[in-house]
Amino acid sequence: MKFEDIYNKILEQLKQTCAGINENDIDGLIEEIFKSKKIFIGGAGRSLLMMRSLAMRLMQFGFNSYVVGDTTTPAIREGDLLILGTNSGETKNLKSYCAVAKENNARISVITSNPQSTIGKQADNVVVFNRIIDEEKIQSSGSTFEQSLLIFCDALIVKIYQTGRLGNEEVDKFIRIRHANLE
User: Fold this and answer.
1) Is 146 an active-site residue?
2) Distance (Å, rounded) from C-alpha 129 to C-alpha 120?
3) Which of 107, 123, 133, 159 is deepest in the core (most CB within 10 A)?
4) What are the structural domains of the chain?
5) CB 115 within 8 A of CB 125
6) How confident is residue 47, by pLDDT bands cut at 50, 70 and 90?
7) pTM greater than 0.90 (yes/no)
8) Sign of CA dihedral 78, 49, 54, 83
9) CB distance 100 to 56 below 8 Å
10) What gap in Å lies between CA 31 and CA 35, rounded to an integer?
């Protein structure tokens, strides 16, 4: 198969993964973000790398966002939100994060392709990705989920901005105010 065909097939499958995500679930996640004092972002492996991009953009939009496990991440408390990106919803350390969040009366949102998972059932808000049927897959389910997660997080940021609740600055100017300058 030619590279261009592989590339186009991957893009097609990413589109399938995110097709039909429930708009109410997205709106629920956005409401959770706006009403939270602090937002904790988590995942494992490559999913965590994608979720880090969400934490960065939320910070640039003026939210108090932290990546779970970083040395400067504070304790989670009541009024806070834990957002996890997990394909399986069964990753051991992420289940542990949920337990700590629940013990501290924090809210939990999860982005997953397995809403019936342990984490999916514990979450207050669940955003569900479609799974690609095995015969149609061109890459691993993990890769498709992770790539879809990155695109979803960027689309979520656009939707947050479009709520108008952040002010009326032009988006690039809004981000630039808090963008890292020690690079």
Assistant:
1) yes
2) 12
3) 123
4) 3-177 (3.40.50.10490)
5) no
6) very high
7) yes
8) negative
9) no
10) 6
**pLDDT surpassing 80 at residue 129:** yes
SS3 string, the chain, reads CCHHHHHHHHHHHHHHHHCCCCHHHHHHHHHHHHHCCCEEEECCHHHHHHHHHHHHHHHHCCCCEEECCCCCCCCCCCCCEEEEECCCCCCHHHHHHHHHHHHCCCEEEEEECCCCCHHHHHCCEEEECCCCCHHHCCCCHHHHHHHHHHHHHHHHHHHHHHCCCCCCCCHHHHHHHHCCCCC
Selecting among 146, 169, 170, 183, the annotated active-site residue is 146
Where residue 170 falls among pLDDT bands split at 50, 70, 90?
Answer: low
Q: Inform me whether the pLDDT recorded for 180 exceeds 80.
A: no
